[in-house]
């Protein structure tokens, strides 16, 4: 059973999300960052001088729907009163695309750095990344310490090893990672949401609704997204290949996370250096910015702005 486009709950919700972001002072924009790559992002209008003196925040989404589905509550909280917010779609998500054959998260970091340069962001900016977006945030901070002020890494197992990926497959009862992260059936999406969210009510959604989500949010650029999953450089073997960061870092994690178990958060804090803080949000799974948005926002705001 499928839902026609004009009755699609996903399309209706997408319209609501767009109105929320517009009300927060952001506009939908597209920018060619080089001859191969075009990035779609939500950002402030270049005609709005009131945000020039605000600190800059770059929000990097996880593997799944486009950025506006994952960061709506943060954009509403932080823009435009506290930050000059930029919320891009990573390459092959939303309307961002490239003709390059590079599929690594390092390439995503390079694209985000080029975007900020093209936007004329000359002062240091804060990077907030969740899950896959945390991989990208880590590489940006590592490669451009002179550009990145502070780093927030949420629910992001950048310290994963090959055994962690194998454990995830066991928990999800799937034979390959794309079955977990790129569901193509209602059953697969229900499994993913059971791992990613602690909201039990999601299990009650009918197949028609899950299938509507899949057709609208998971089908576009599916081949390229599978290549992105296979192109991740982190966690390919049992050896950790990450280094401490020079910036102040905040790690935020849900204690019920079943994608990246919370024990990884404690290990990551020790790896990233003395300037790293860890905040655990109770009774929350892999998407604390959605499940527990108010507490997540309070934690991030305190870290980025301190006593201001």
From TrEMBL:
Gene3D superfamilies: alpha/beta hydrolase. It comes from the Eukaryota. One of its GO terms (molecular function) is catalytic activity. SUPFAM superfamilies: alpha/beta-Hydrolases. Residues 55-291 form the AB hydrolase-1 domain. InterPro entries: AB_hydrolase_1 (IPR000073), AB_hydrolase_fold (IPR029058), Epox_hydrolase-like (IPR000639), Meta-cleavage_hydrolase (IPR052370). This is AB hydrolase-1 domain-containing protein. The lineage of its organism: Eukaryota, Viridiplantae, Streptophyta, Embryophyta, Tracheophyta.
């Amino acid at each position: 059973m499928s839902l026609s486009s004009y009755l699609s709950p996903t399309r209706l919700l997408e319209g609501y999300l767009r109105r929320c972001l517009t009300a927060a002072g952001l506009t939908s924009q597209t920018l060619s960052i080089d001859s191969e790559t075009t990035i779609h992002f939500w950002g402030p209008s270049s005609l709005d001088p009131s945000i020039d003196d605000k600190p800059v925040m770059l929000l990097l989404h996880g593997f799944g729907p486009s950025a506006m589905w994952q960061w709506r509550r943060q954009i509403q909280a932080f823009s435009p009163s506290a930050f000059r917010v930029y919320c891009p779609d990573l390459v092959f998500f939303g309307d961002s695309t490239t003709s390059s054959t590079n599929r690594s998260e390092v390439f995503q970091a390079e694209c985000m750095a080029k975007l900020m340069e093209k936007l004329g962001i000359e002062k240091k900016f804060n990077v907030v990344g969740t899950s896959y977006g945390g991989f990208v945030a880590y590489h940006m901070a590592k490669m451009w310490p002179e550009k990145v002020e502070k780093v927030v890494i949420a629910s992001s197992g950048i310290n994963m090893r090959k055994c962690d990926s194998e454990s995830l497959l066991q928990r999800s009862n799937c034979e390959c990672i794309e079955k977990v992260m790129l569901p193509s059936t209602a059953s697969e999406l229900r499994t993913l949401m059971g791992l990613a969210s602690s909201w039990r009510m999601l299990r009650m959604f009918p197949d028609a609704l899950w299938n509507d989500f899949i057709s609208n949010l998971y089908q576009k650029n599916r081949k390229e997204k599978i290549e992105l999953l296979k192109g991740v450089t982190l966690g390919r073997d049992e050896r950790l290949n990450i280094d401490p960061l020079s910036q102040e870092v905040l790690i935020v994690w849900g204690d019920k996370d079943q994608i990246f178990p919370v024990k990884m958060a404690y290990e990551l804090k020790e790896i990233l250096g003395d300037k790293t803080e860890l905040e655990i949000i109770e009774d929350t799974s892999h998407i604390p910015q959605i499940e527990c948005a108010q507490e997540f926002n309070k934690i991030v705001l305190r870290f980025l702005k301190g006593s201001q």
